[in-house]
Amino acid sequence: MALISVFSAVCFVAGYGRGLALSSLPGVFEFMTVLIFVSGLMFGWVVGALNGALTLFIYMLVPYPFAHPAAFLFTISPVLLLVMVLLGAVYGVVGGVLGKRYNLMKINARFVAEMAFWGFVLTFIYDVLGSVGFYLAYPIFYASVWEAIYLTFIPLYMPYPPIIHTFTNTIIFAILVPPLVKAISKFPGIKTSKSQSN
Length: 198
Fold this sequence. Notes:
Blueprint: H1 2-21, H2 32-43, H3 45-60, H4 78-99, H5 109-137, H6 145-150, H7 164-185, H8 193-197
């Protein structure tokens, strides 16, 4: 529980801090989901899932206009909260499953490329299903669920489409996952999922 609490706190600070530091670019850069993914990659899918769920639960309750797309409402629908909590958990679960596939002590160009791939896939799912969740929670804003999905790909309220988050996260995963894995591996006394299974 201590490990999950610490990781969730770090993820939340990363998410909320990004909103404060880059308030003019909401939805473009964020470092919360890559940290959730790494928690699963290093410590297993259970830690990753719980960390992702707890982080998104707290994050979605923060009524700060630049924290997340629904924050301008200053309230959160239980439906959207549930959807986002599940999507946060997915990052941790996938990280945990992938952590068993890789030798995390040998990070090469292929590993970096695959992290970019997973960053793209997971964030694409997150962005599209997040839009679906917003529609389910607040159907008054859209004519249909297809409009909610469509608006994920075109600029409407901002000069860029929400799907840009998918492409920036692809780069962030490629750049940050390798050094985060190396850094966590060097912490004394840290038992990763790999070390526990050996």
